[in-house]
Write a structure and sequence with these properties.
- The structure holds two protein chains of two kinds.
- Chain A is of the alpha/beta class.
- In chain A, 38% of the residues lie in helices and 25% in strands.
- Chain A has nine helices and ten strands.
- In chain A, the strands form two sheets. Chain A has a six-stranded mixed β-sheet with strand order 6-7-8-3-9-10, sandwiched between helices.
- In chain A, β9 and β10 form a beta hairpin.
- Chain A is globular and about 55 Å long.
- By secondary structure, chain B is mainly alpha-helical.
- Chain B has one domain.
- Chain B has nine helices and no strands.
- In chain B, α1 packs across α8 and α4 packs antiparallel against α9.
- The two termini of chain B are 41 Å apart.
- Classes of the chains: A alpha/beta, B mainly alpha.
- At the A-B interface, α2, β6 and α3 of A face α4 and α5 of B.
Chain lengths: 246, 256
Amino acid sequence: MTDGAATAVAFDQVSKSFGGKPVLRDVTFDVRPSEALCILGRSGTGKSVTLKLIISLLKPDRGKIWIEQDEITRLGTEELSRVRRKMGFLFQDAALFDSLTLYENLALPLMRLTGKSPEEADFLVDRVLRQVRLDCDKRKMPSELSGGMRKRAGLARALVLEPRILLADEPSSGLDRITASEIDELLLIQKAERKTALIIVTHDVRGARRVGDRIAILDQGKLVAYGTFAEVEQSQNEVARKLVAE
Amino acid sequence: MSGLANPLEIAGEVSRFGLGAVTDLFRRPFEGDQILRQLAEVGSKSLPLVVASGFALGAVLTLHTRSTLVTFGATAWIPTVQALAFFLEIGPLVTGLLVAGRVGSGIGAVLSNMRATEQIDALESLSIDSFKFLVVPRVVACTLALPLLTLFLDFSGLLGGFLSEYATSRLSFQLYIYQSFSSFQWSNFYPPTLKTAVFGFTIGTVSSFLGYTTNEGAQGVGRAATRSVVISSLLIILLDVLLIKFIFFIFPETAL
């Protein structure tokens, strides 16, 4: 399917099941650098599982997953750790470490993985927090942040290691339309300025139209439509057409 | 047999989990900051509870002992009985159970909450070994803190006993201490104190296992906390019996 040379992420006939129940079935797609792919689908169709397979929090039962030149299903712990550093992950509820301040949440990966001095870490954390407009809140604990602020903080943590691939699980869920637009804007800036490949799982069709270059529709674990919005709107699959009709 | 298979399987998994914590302790990075943070959490924050419990137990035990020994005209033995009771058995066991209640439930709840809210996944996604970062420091902190907390409980028990005795007989502090340790040997002191390191390791391992491996979402948080306390406490009582036999075998002179 691919040698991974021109792609940021590629799935090749990937299947995954839990307790004998198939969640993904022979899914194949690829994402190029500085491209945004939005994955849409009804609840429980394997969208979040797809993201967790990409960052290797889960292993596929069958198939191959490429992250740039690395086929990750065969990698050991050390090599996997190296590949993961190319990626950032924005979790659905941000998953901030609740015993650490916002600053510590961002400084932790910098200090541990890059060996930056505290001064360098300070500089980088401040820069990313300014991007998401949370530089005045860095001493706050996650419990003191609102839903939108938590989401932006989660995005800041995902970006602090300057990933080449950004995975976002429902970046606009639970947010009002204005805050959701702000998150979309930050994702677009990331794609345009840093050439980051984005893979976004979302139910927000309007946001997907704004951010996504291509979309993939999952239904019952199968990729039923894949392409630009215009292409998916002409799809033979009824679920796909309904999902993008907004 | 099938009824036994599951508990045996779980026991095997917990043992492997604890062994993993020991081997990972000697693998870089060494997590010194996290170990100190957890030592403060397990040790310093448990200290008020341990000292207060020891003091109260010491005072109450002296009152009970006095009413019995007075019948035989043996009240002079009160400090000795008090010291032996605390250093040999009450101190280690009560400290173990108190820490299992306060710290075990905390570890179970914190880790299972981190699992439910994807914080453990977030660590892994950042290439941070979550087992080494979260579990190893907690197991090490419990193992190191228990013997120290036991000493605090032992001595606060003696202090409570002294004050109770002083209120009745006006016994001097110097004489109380002299009588407490007059028939005491080192072998009475360090094996029971050091056995609490095993209690600490058990609390850290069992509670971390139940919290770290839970997959029951938000509902699992309360369940992991409760199970951590119940299973840790039962294991401490069981281990206490086994370790006493072991100590008697290694140090026969301690079998008074």
